[in-house]
Amino acid sequence: MSLPLPPGPRGSLFTGIKAKLPKSEPWKTYAAWGSHYGGPMISFRVCNRLTIVLNTHTAVHDLLERRAGIYSGRPASWMFGVICGRAKAVFNISATDARHRIYRRLLQRGLGGQAVKDYWPVLEEEVDILIRGLTDTPDEFEQQIRRNATAVIMKVAFGYSITVAHDRFISVAEQSSNISGWAMAPGRWLVDYYPIFRFVPSWFPLAHFKRQGAEWRTILNSISEVPHAWVKSQMASGLYTSSFTSRLMEPGITEEEEDIVKWCAGALYAGAADTTVSATLSFLMLMALHPVVQERAQAEIDSVLGGAPRVADVSRLPYLLAVMKEVMRYAPVANMALPHQATHDDTYAGYRIPKGCTVVPNVWAILHDPELYPQPFLFDPDRFAKGSTQPDPGAYIWGFGRRICPGIQFAEPALLLSMASILYHFTIIPASRDTAAVEFTTGITSHIKPFGIHFAPRRDSREV
Length: 464
Ligand code: HEM
Prior knowledge:
By secondary structure, this protein is α+β, with helices and mostly antiparallel strands. It has 17 helices and 8 strands.
């Protein structure tokens, strides 16, 4: 006898729960459905596609980690993959495509071990520019943070320097993250459920999705095509800065190999820019709201370092590390990581998980599970003090299995350096006495909704 699907809301025969899909912060609704129906996971159908949401750390660990061999696929997205032209992107490529392994190998080589240290001077140079920017135009802190995140990754991926505040690559990073969210939104595009619609000509009155897709394709292409072409022209001129791309563009490289390099470098940009902005903005807002935590982190930096932080120093700041972990737990960058796909039929906890279904890890639910993190809505870095038994959120925030974020070793020191440098130079104070409510945007990456803050200088600005 075949096992049942995991429990969950059931909806109508044709569209499933399309009409009930939450418009904002779906991770909260999925967690609430989890409590209502019970068990480690829920399932629901939108039109002809089944989604299973894993709401507990055990289910995520048992399936996405221990059975990574069958849970590392990505759901096919006709709108995003085909109409917007992203099927070969690192984030979307099928785990069974031979390229997936090659991408992962190149990214691990370029972003791990010793290689990552080659980028430390870029991080330091750019954090100094960030501090100068926050000193000169503190009200534009959001733009400064965004500029910094994009400048770092453009230098690393392509050797491209961002010198002006309105460089087009700064806005493209934000746009592309938003577009990915819209183009992959469940229930939004009929073509995802009935792929036959992809053959409808663009001029056809109901083919809005095709015209929209063509527009998005152009913007998304600028992440990979435009900077890649720029590196090639620089290399041809002989005057170029060494980068992830230039190092891989060896003489005699084949067209196929070059295409692989292009997609990997584009993934650095797409993976790093908006995520780093999210984490840094959350840090700023949470420091403004928690002056005692901020003071303690500043005291640690001042006593341990005795000067402006550099990347090699940040591992000596255990309290700041705990602050970073708590920022990422309290305000996860990617509340549901990215959707995975089951590539084989499976069973778990007495339920059936059919091949082809989308499997979503509810990272937010795990990081706010009171059994793992007592009083989960309290911001408290001491959760991660030495001897604490609360799990390291690092086990969840970077995703899972064969899809785990390849940028961890790059992102962690980069974030710690920004956090240490900001706290070394400034005290962050809320602009208003009223305590601001902490709210978040909905998307693949979620952002804290910023409120007014002041940057009170702690040092002479000439020190920067
Ligand atoms: C705060 C910073 C970051 C966070 C929280 C983060 C988180 C994530 C998450 C949750 C995933 C999806 C994993 C899954 O599907 O299970 C992911 C994928 C990815 N990340 Fe990151 N990331 C960050 C920074 C970076 C950086 C700095 C880079 C590159 C320099 C990067 C490159 C990538 C790439 C290429 C993927 C796609 C992996 C694949 O599909 O095989 N990320 N990241």
